[in-house]
Amino acid sequence: GEPLLETLRTFRTPSDSAVVYKVIGNRKMEPAEAKELVEKGRIGPLDGFVSKNGKPYSASLVLGDEGKVKFDFGGPSAAAAEENPEELDKLEPVGRCPKTGGDLFETANSFLVRVKENGSASIPFKLSRKILEQEIPREQVLKLLETGKTDVLPSFRSKRTKRQFAASLVLKPGNKIGFEFPPREPGKGKGRKPAAKAKTTAKADSE
Hints:
Layout lengths: L4 E2 L3 E3 L6 E3 L1 E2 L2 E2 L2 H10 L1 E9 L5 E8 L5 E4 L5 H6 L11 E2 L6 E4 L3 E8 L2 E9 L1 E2 L2 E2 L2 H10 L5 E5 L6 E9 L3 E5 L20 E2 L5
Antiparallel strand pairs: 1-2, 2-3, 4-5, 6-7, 7-8, 9-10, 10-11, 11-12, 13-14, 15-16, 16-17, 17-18
C-alpha cells in the first residue's frame, strides 16, 4: 500500500486515496490508529469521542469508498446478540475466553463471549464497556476472564453519593460481576462513621 504522510491537520496517502483528520469527533487520532485505519479500512471501537453537547461516546471508524472517514455505531447490541448470536459474525473476535473456549467480541457498548457447541451458539458472558462511569479496557476484560479479577480501576462513581471510588471487578458464579475494594490506607477514615456497605454486584448489561 501507499505510505502514510503527516501534514498539519491530516494523515494522508500521496494520492489522497485516504485522508484521516488528526482530530475526529473532538478526539485526537494517534499515528498508529490512522495507519491501522488506512491499512485495514476499519478501526475500533474507540473511546474518547465527544459530542457537541459535551457527552463522551464510543464508535468505530471506517474508510469509505472515496477515502473519507465515517463513524460506524454498528455491530449488534448485546440484546440482539443474545437473541441471535450469529449476528456477531459481522465482527472480528478480539480475544478468547480461556475457561469456555468462546470468542470475545467487542461492540460499541459491550464485551460478549460467544460459545459454539453442537451447531448452536450462546452468549454466556456480557459486560458493559462502561460501568458507573469507569471505562473497562479490553485487556482488563481478558484478565477478568482468565483470572476472575481485574486490576484496581480508579474511576468508578457511586450513583448514590456521586463520589469516585477505586475497585476491582470480580467474576462471580453465574458470570455475575461484583466489586472488590482495595484495603484502606492506615489511619484513613478515623473518627468517621463507618461507610455503608457497598453493593457487590455491578450491572454487566449495557442495553
